[in-house]
Amino acid sequence: xxxxxxxxxxxxxSAGTLVADTGRCIVIEEHLLxxxxxxxxxxxxxxEYVIRLAEAPRxxxxxxxxxxxxxxxxx
Length: 75
Hints:
- This protein is mainly β.
- Helices cover about 0% and strands about 60% of the residues.
- It is built from no helices and seven strands.
- It has strands at about 1-5, 10-15, 15-20, 25-35, 35-45, 50-55, 65-70.
- The strands form two sheets. Strands 2-1-6-7 form a four-stranded antiparallel beta sheet, with no helix packed on it. A three-stranded antiparallel beta sheet has the order 3-4-5, with no helix packed on it.
- A hairpin with a 2-residue loop joins strand 1 and strand 2 (about 10-15).
- It starts with a strand and ends in a 7-residue tail after the last strand.
């Protein structure tokens, strides 16, 4: 899952596994490598800050589903 979201006046991107949808926000878990250490980071994004969600393909030959949030829904 890839999410683009708003933080103040900046747009951020997060890519990882969708681990939760609480009804108020989505939670994406990212797996990062720092040297030889693996780190896991969870990003909690409230619905009102989500700009775009895209399903990342597991196989590069697969198509990707993209979901944009209409501007009226982004209060």
